[in-house]
Amino acid sequence: MVDRAALMDAPDELMELLKLSDRREPAVVDTVVWVVLGILQGRLVPGQDLNSVELASQVGVSRIPVREALALLESQGLVEMRARKRPRVAAFSPEQIREVFFVRAQLMSALGKIAAERATDSDLARLSSIVDTLRKYAAANDDDDYRWAHFKYFDIMVEISGNETARGILNSLFLRTLSRRRALSEPGRVAESLHFAELILEAFQRRDGDLVALLVRRAIEAALAAIERAAPPPDEA
């Protein structure tokens, strides 16, 4: 049976990403969160079949909310539904991952430039507060909370830019690479990520939109490089 406490402790950022904050069907929400946490934790791996009967038993719900949850996960690109076959955890090729990160880098760098040019003192204070939080989690070797605080850092930049359409696209792209996010555990990776976050904040404080754009692009490229280093060899993928 699933650990109910783990479901209740799911990060708010994850609930927002999955568009679960306003859903009232607890059984659907629990199933979605259980699957997504499984992907993040490596309990469920890309290409793994998902048995709806087993899922219902593990989460402690009926099969109807499981089907609804799987349909929602398919719409987010996290699950593949196949005719006459079991659904499975979505698997992305190295080329698809590179494409996702290319699009993220282009969008985020453009939005970062806009955000830097329109950020208020209050916006800068929010970004500075998040960087302080990142430092705290990095010092505590808390990769999970660091991951979500880092997501929030970039999300605030997009919010400042005022482009909600791009925000939706970026959130969808972020979800599609969840299974690769364990690359943060690579030695030195959190320190590298934090360094970029600090440099980006300094560029924001100088209102240097071009520098923010450059640093954001390099930060995302560094994240992709870490993911590619952490990827298993082709015969193990």
Task: Describe this structure as you would to a colleague.
The structure is a single chain. Helix 7 (121-139) packs antiparallel against helix 8 (143-161) and helix 10 packs antiparallel against helix 11. The chain has helices at residues 4-8, 12-17, 26-41, 52-59, 63-75, 94-118, 121-139, 143-161, 164-176, 189-205, 209-230; strands at residues 79-80, 88-89. It has 237 residues and is mainly α. It folds into 2 domains: 4-89, Winged helix-like DNA-binding domain superfamily/Winged helix DNA-binding domain (Arc Repressor Mutant, subunit A, Orthogonal Bundle); 94-236, Four Helix Bundle (Hemerythrin (Met), subunit A) (Up-down Bundle).
Secondary-structure blueprint:
Layout: H1 4-8, H2 12-17, H3 26-41, H4 52-59, H5 63-75, E1 79-80, E2 88-89, H6 94-118, H7 121-139, H8 143-161, H9 164-176, H10 189-205, H11 209-230
Antiparallel strand pairs: 1-2
Helix pairs in contact: 3-5, 4-5, 6-8, 6-9, 6-11, 7-8, 7-10, 10-11
Protein name: HTH gntR-type domain-containing protein
InterPro entries: GntR_C (IPR011711), TF_FadR/GntR_C (IPR008920), Tscrpt_reg_HTH_GntR (IPR000524), WH-like_DNA-bd_sf (IPR036388), WH_DNA-bd_sf (IPR036390)
Domain HTH gntR-type: 25-92
